[in-house]
Amino acid sequence: MQATAGSLLSLTPRSRFYDEGYNDGFAHGQIHGLIEGRALGREKGYEMFEELGFYEGFALTWKKIYESTGRSEEFVSSPKPVLTVC
Questions:
Q1: Which residues contact residue 56 at a Cβ distance below 8 angstroms, ignoring those fewer than 6 apart?
Q2: 47-72 b/e with 16+ CB inside 10 Å = b?
Q3: 34-73 pLDDT, tens per residue?
Q4: Cα 52 from Cα 33, distance rounded (Å)
Q5: Which end of the chain, N or C, is less surrounded by CB atoms within 10 Å?
């Protein structure tokens, strides 16, 4: 069996340590990427929930104002489908 330059380089400790370090770092990155991704998703989901809650409160407030004045028919009809959802 004849040794080539490529086969000799693959047996060096430097190459072996590099490969082990790369594989360990890749596995470590997968774990922490999953954890960080879940945290980011939870944070962004809460921000969306908060924003939608604001809009819902705004719509409900104006719906009550329109109903209390008794003049809800005088306003533009476009908000009505939104207000019926609330």
A1: 86
A2: eeeeeeeeeeeeeeebbeebeeeeee
A3: 999 999 999 999 999 999 999 999 988 988 888 888 765 6
A4: 28
A5: N
Q: What residues does each domain of the chain span?
A: 5-85
Q: How far is CA 68 from CA 63, 72, 80, in A?
A: 9, 9, 15
Which tens digits make up the pLDDT trace of 17-27? 888 899 999 99
Determine the Cα–Cα distance for residues 80 and 84; give it in Å rounded to an integer. Answer: 6
Question: For residue 32, what are its two tokens?
Answer: 């922490």
Residue type, 53: G
Q: 0.85 exceeded by the pTM?
A: no
Distance CA 25, CA 33 (A): 12
